[in-house]
Amino acid sequence: MKGVIFRCLEELVIETKGMDLWEELLEQHCPSDRVYISAQSYPDEELVALATSVSKTLNLSMPETLKAFGTYLFSFLAKKHTSIVNEFHSFEHLILSIDKVIHSEVQKLYDEPNLPVIDASVLDSETIKLIYNSPRQLCFCAEGLIYGCAQHFNESVDIQQTTCSHHGDSMCTFIIKHG
Amino acid sequence: MQNYYKAYMREKQARDKLEELLEEKTTKLYALNVELEKKLELLERQQVAVVQSEKMATLGTLSAGVAHEINNPLAYLTCNIDTLAVYSKDMNDYLSLTSKYIKDEVSRDEFFEQFHKLQKTTDIAELIEDLSDISQDCKEGCERISAIVKNLLDFAKPKSDSLLEFEVSDVIEHATQLLENKLKLLQLDVTCEQNLLLKGSKPNLTQALINTLVNAAQSCAKVKNADPSFRGTIQISAYKSNDKAIIRIKDNGAGLEEADINRVFDPFYSTKPLGEGTGMGLAVVYGIISNHHGTVSISNNPDSGVTLNLELPLTI
Ligand code: HEM
Ligand SMILES: Nc1ncnc2c1ncn2[C@@H]1O[C@H](COP(=O)(O)OP(=O)(O)OP(=O)(O)O)[C@@H](O)[C@H]1O
Ligand SMILES: [Mg+2]
Ligand SMILES: [Zn+2]
């Protein structure tokens, strides 16, 4: 996973729980000389370990933690990559362009990123179907990102996950109602 | 504690700034790279065009030689056909006499008398022997012409439908046949291992070999001009080494100036008098060999002349 994701977690933890907790987490799960740089890749297990500890301190389940993190992550990415996100004028416009535009820009900026396959389609003027597929199985994080995206555009959303790879389906499906 | 937090925030800001810079550079590099890729594609397309036009140019120079090659068999074909016309009159005399005799229009004595008269001007045994010689000659002449035509057609075939597997020995044979006229004053030695299979464009590789052989022949001719007793020699050898085919074209001609060695593959580089060489010969060789994922190099021989060294990946 790219450092940019770790840097987001770092910011979230320090803003809400303070530097001491972050230092503790680093000490527990990372090599002693660890400094996160956005463009560099770090082991996925390190993120999982950090997130697991965070979920324990916050007294939240792992899915809830990832969802919350995803929500924060969207605003973090929007701040970091303003020129990419500013291309979009609406929630629907952005969601439909995740794969073809956003992550393909990411592909240009980052060296060999690990990106999911996301296929979004419009069901009707207020419903989008989004299919998420990734060996990293971070659908809860994706859900959070969608919430964060709605917040960014001042929209309210209701997200139903109708299939999930954690429950034996081949991929995860979200039905997103927005307006 | 407050101070530490400030220090941390400062460090964080530094990281942010640096990452911003990095992103800016990455974006620029990416755009530059896209542009370079476009240029590369354009260059590659132009290279194909150059190969094609060079082929047409070579075809031009070749056609003079080819015309000469076809004229030879054509001359003795014409001559033989004239002789055949004369013989056909003689045969006609024999045959009509025989036919008359069979139909009882002449008596046995008359038949023999006239037959002996004919024998005196045209001997029947000679006639039979000559006829078989003439038909054999005509057949050879026609075969020679059709071989030349076939080579020309093979050579002119467009690149796209000729990505096939073929033997190195075929390419060598093909190229030397096309150049027979130019090479005939030289001693040509070919040693080629069999079953050296390449994949790619046979016409283009033939072209590469032709360009090389033409250079070698020209270099030998240059020495011969100064010293008429000089005997020009070109040795072509092809063999397998690891999973590559090595093809060497060695001449005993004028050799290269050390300073030219690095430049001979440059497009339009020629040491010939203005208006004589295009200087595209070896540039095209380089292009073709690169397209086949091979390498080409040139060096002076220890004694005299030049060796051009081609290495091409074998299919298996
Ligand atoms: C609602 C919109 C988005 C969704 C649902 C989404 C989804 C995801 C998910 C789930 C991942 C984790 C990797 C995986 O699951 O295989 C990911 C990675 C990533 N995404 Fe997005 N994304 C969104 C928008 C964005 C935006 C706006 C950006 C930035 C311009 C972005 C940049 C990235 C980057 C840098 C990674 C990390 C790649 C790596 O670690 O190698 N994404 N995305
Ligand atoms: N076998 C050789 N011996 C000596 N010099 C050579 C030999 N082959 C090539 N050269 C040198 O390399 C130069 C470039 O060769 P190239 O085939 O590219 O162009 P050219 O022969 O000058 O022109 P063109 O092929 O259009 O007639 C030649 O002018 C000559 O000086
Ligand atoms: Mg030449
Ligand atoms: Zn899921």
From TrEMBL, chain B:
Gene Ontology MF annotations: ATP binding
Protein name: histidine kinase
Documented EC number(s): 2.7.13.3
Enzyme class per UniProt: transferase
Residue ranges that the Swiss-Prot or TrEMBL entry lists as coiled coil: 8-46
Domain Histidine kinase residue range list: 65-316
InterPro entries attached to this UniProt entry: HATPase_C_sf, HATPase_dom, His_kinase_dom, HisK_dim/P_dom, HisK_dim/P_sf, Sig_transdc_His_kin-like_C
Superkingdom assignment: Bacteria
Record keywords: ATP-binding, Coiled coil, Nucleotide-binding, Phosphoprotein
Catalysis performed (reactions): ATP + protein L-histidine = ADP + protein N-phospho-L-histidine
Pfam (any one): HATPase_c
Taxonomic lineage of the native organism: Bacteria, Pseudomonadati, Pseudomonadota, Gammaproteobacteria, Alteromonadales
